[in-house]
Amino acid sequence: MRRERRSGGWPMKSPEDEMAFLQDTRPSREPFLNAPPTVLCLIGLLLATHAVRVFLPGNLPDDMLLEYSLTPARYAAALAQGMPPQGVFGLLVPLVTYIFLHADFAHVGINSLWLLVFGPIVARRLGTLRFLLFFLLCGIAAALLHLAVYWGSPMQVVGASGAVSGLMAAGMRILYGRLYGGADELAPIFSKPILGFSAVWVIANVVTGILRIGVSDDLTLIAWVAHLGGFFAGLFLIGRIGRPVGMEPYRPG
């Protein structure tokens, strides 16, 4: 398959090439799994963080969860009783660190798999730094919506699924934009494919929430509200910071 190059040196790929598992089945020298190094490194970081935590001695694994997971009750207490000893910094840190914590290897494995599926198409469009920023912003948006809905809840939330949901939304806009609009286009938010996919994602997560799937006595693995927060953050943010690598910004006049 012949590939053109943009001015920034990034190869132009067909929509199928953009997803890690959707590769051309014809003979090729390229590997079956063709994910950008940024995505693979991020997956490695998720796996390494979990491995380090679970193999810490004594009560340190649980202490790390308690300190760095997202716990709405911590924020409600800070508002009612004053700032914790760590101050504002102690409240801001969990908005990021909860993304990299997981309950078990199955949990981190599933999130890593979804990151491998939806991360490449976004990483190729944004480049390394913007991709990592986008990932973190979607995770933070997911956390903020969860805090707003479950304000004061003592249940801890961990996992990268909110951030990955944002990548999923962005990936769908990029993929359908390339299929129907052109190599560098994004599918409109109110286009039929995006509305349809969004509706399915919302329904699936609402059902998950009603049935309390992935919720234990003190830990939330599948935070359906966080999924929606990350998804809609990604859906809108990709339109704001999603100019492809190598494309010159538009200057009217």
Structure description:
The protein has 253 residues and is mostly helical. The protein has one domain: Rhomboid-like (Rhomboid-like fold), CATH 1.20.1540.10. 60% of the residues lie in helices and 2% in strands. It has helices at 15-18, 37-54, 60-68, 72-81, 87-92, 94-97, 105-126, 128-149, 161-180, 192-211, 224-241, and strands spanning 156-157, 219-220. It has a two-stranded parallel sheet with strand order 1-2. Helix 8 (128-149) packs across helix 9 (161-180).
Summarize the topology.
Layout: H1 15-18, H2 37-54, H3 60-68, H4 72-81, H5 87-92, H6 94-97, H7 105-126, H8 128-149, E1 156-157, H9 161-180, H10 192-211, E2 219-220, H11 224-241
Parallel strand pairs: 1-2
- Name given to the CATH homologous superfamily: Rhomboid-like
> Rounded to an integer, what's the Rg over CA atoms?
19 Å
What CATH calls the topology is: Rhomboid-like fold
Percent in helix: 55-70%
Indicate the CATH architecture: Up-down Bundle
The stretches of 5 or more residues where confidence is low (pLDDT under 50) are 1-12, 20-32, 248-253
Overall mean pLDDT score?
Answer: 83
Sheet with the most strands? 2 strands, parallel
Number of helices: 11
Shape assignment: globular
How would you write the strand order of the largest sheet?
A: 1-2
Helix-strand sequence: HHHHHHHHEHHEH
Based on helices, strands and strand pairing, what is the structural class? mainly alpha
Q: In total, how many domains does the architecture comprise?
A: 1
Instruction: Quickly name the level 1 CATH class.
Output: Mainly Alpha
